[in-house]
Prior knowledge:
Layout: H1 8-21, E1 31-36, H2 43-55, E2 61-65, H3 73-77, H4 85-89, H5 95-98, E3 100-101, E4 107-110, H6 119-123, H7 126-138, E5 141-145, H8 154-159, E6 164-170, H9 176-188, E7 193-199
Parallel strand pairs: 1-5, 1-6, 2-4, 2-5, 6-7
Antiparallel strand pairs: 3-4
Amino acid sequence: MQINPNSLTSEAYRSLRFNIEFTNFDHEVKTIVITSANRGEGKTTTALNLAVAYAQIGKKVVLLDADLRKPSIHIAFGGDSSRGLTSYLTSKSTMNEIIHESYVENLSIIIAGAIPPNPSELLASKQMNALLEQLKSSYDLIIIDTPPVLMLTDAKVMASKCDGVLLVVEYGKVKRKEGKKVKDELMLAKATLLGVVMNKINSQDTDDYV
């Protein structure tokens, strides 16, 4: 979205943003969890580009790395990776201390910070609830990168706290049985599934635009 804004991929992220904005959900959507069935399906890339897509239309966005197992948002933006979400959840930092401005206008970043021994417990804590409430009062949109649903409980914990979930699926990789299990897990967490992002589709599998 930032480096090659005129590419077909960037246009796909604009389309995703449009679909979320103009779908009539039964409640306001300000906190969006991005997850996948398994690792390597492109959830973090989707979170990054969707956050930039919203920032580019003037929305005040914060991108939160809640993948406390294998965080990667800090790699994309650089900077100090020691002070982040975990330092806030363990009362070592304030909210203002963990929010970093990015090189993208209107986009702020909260990195994961140090990897803790108890990620699920931290994400389920009252401190996490408090952080989300504070962020909602300061930002138009909070986009949250989480671990895959089938591997860990973390994504389900966050999904239960947020307004909706986007499920990223690698084309041709996730089996129907796995997809149904992911949906069942999210429904069990009382999560609202906003939609499914089909990722890594080969151009040969789609018709070219003429």
